[in-house]
Amino acid sequence: MLQSIRDGSRSWGAKIIIGVMVAAMALFGVESLFSVFGDDPNEVASVNGEPIMRQQVELEVQRALRSGQVPPEQERALRNDVLDQLITQQLLTQYAEDGGVFVSDAQLDQMIVGLPEFHDQDGRFSAEIFRNRLAGAGYTPVAFREELRADIKRQHLQQGLAFSDFSLESEQERLAELQRQQRSFRYVLLDADDVSVEANVTEAQMQEYFDANQARFERPEQVRVEYVLVDRQAMAENVEVNEQSLRDAWREQNRNADRRVSHIMVTFGEERSRQEAQAHANEALEALNSGETFADTALRYSDDTASAEEGGDLGVISRGFFGDAFDEAAFALDEGETSQLVEMDGAFHILQVTELVAPAFEEQREALQQDVALREVNDEFNQQVQRLIDESFAADDLQSVADDLGLTLNQTDWLARGEGEGVLSEPGVLDEAFSADVLEEGYNSEVIELDDDRRLVLRVAEHRETTQLTLDDVRDEVANAVVAQQRQEALEQEAARMIKAVEAGEASNIDWLEASNISRQSDTVLPRAVVQQVFRMPRPQEGDSVYRSVSLPEGVAIIALDSVSVGEVDEQLTSFVAQMAEQLRAQSVIQGLVDDLRSDAKIER
């Protein structure tokens, strides 16, 4: 039952608690939570007399579908796989118990206390949380303990089998040597231009191909969808924004932008009093107001002689350079504006912003216009969305909702899962059309939030199940496939003829391409099928070559393997190969046990 052991997860409690509760309630109602693992005549299989109930299968199926691990169209195949998995678990549990594998109550207690699902905020086990979460999932403490006990037994069994088998060091070295092996070869690619095929497709050939490939010619489950969209950006396109609003927005957007600042500084303290300094600074301010340039005024009045020689320039500053009082004055100014007196650090300052380190107003006009317009329709957008929520929930159609809200009712052609275009192609949107509430119950979907500016509601207008098409429905497609098959067969025959000629020593004008020292892990542009075939070919004798052909999606490759060499030792690769060998060996041992148990068991389905 606990998926964690099968998946290698460390958290066993979460899968039971969340998965059982959600799936059981969805499938069988609240009352089922208290009978999921009880006696039930609805038995789908038995293993050596022990039953497997339909609820167990359905819970696992729904859990996989809800997690997104398996697409909904594969539900039927998934149900068979789940039942096989439960049968295997039952067999392993029985074998472990027959072999005397034992899990004590103390071991169970220790494991349960350590599960984070049952911990409080301080990270300690809480009996109250334990009871509440089990009750919410339809478990009694006894049922939970027994399910956990069975999973631990299976894990002990599998670990014991895995550790009982091992590979020799010589085997691991040989595997590593094979993995780092390098091969040099020549190859040539044949395509449709290398053979001449008459497109002579008979009715019998088409029927034969169609019968052998019917799975290719199914029309998938499809829906026609209606939807309405509330789009804040579309609403903003109809808003006229005046120039003053744009200027205000530009100032607001750039009020924290870095800026180049000049200043005139008049100090007080030892040489002049504060009152005298203020009077001197006011004289400077009057000079500026009367039209004197900032640079000339700075030379006459500023005590900061270094900057005064540069027109008072302090360079480009960011917020925080000179303190709060300076920031408050400097970052309140637009480009070209001059401040009043600013008192800070024993001096009076007059500031002027000579440059904003930001895009010019005209460069930002278009973006500013869009931002301002979006803000102006914000309230209307929120109201529209709320109306969409309220009305679509209660409505039996979408046309009335569209009419009431002044929206366009959009309609699509037939769509299969994953085929949506535009807004319907965005993640999760078309999935709503295939959800139980929308597809089976005929409801409008919930309001789907596409992004900050768009909300959508959809409804299924028509639905049709997966349908097996007839030959007449796909006649042209089948004819093209038969021609392609004939062309591929002709290429394979041509490849065989060329290889036979080369092996016989007949003169050949094959224009070979070279590939040197290619390993299994090489980052290469060669077709993967070519590399795989190269490493399946036998080692050639010294001075000779081995020839093979391999089919490609559109064509055939002829390969001449010329030499095989052992690559450089790579400790990391050697370790990885050894680890993988142990894992594969362990899986093989466990699978061997499962196969043996199945052959001897009495399994009824």
Overview of the structural elements:
This protein has 605 residues and is α+β, with helices and mostly antiparallel strands. Strands 5, 10, 11, 12 and 13 form a five-stranded antiparallel sheet that branches. It has a four-stranded antiparallel sheet with strand order 15-3-17-16. Strands 7-6-9-8 form a four-stranded antiparallel sheet, sandwiched between helices. The model is unreliable at 1-40 (pLDDT under 50). The protein contains 23 helices and 18 strands. The protein is extended, with a radius of gyration of 39 Å. Pfam families: Rotamase, SurA_N_3. The chain crosses the membrane at residues 12-37. GO terms for molecular function: isomerase activity.
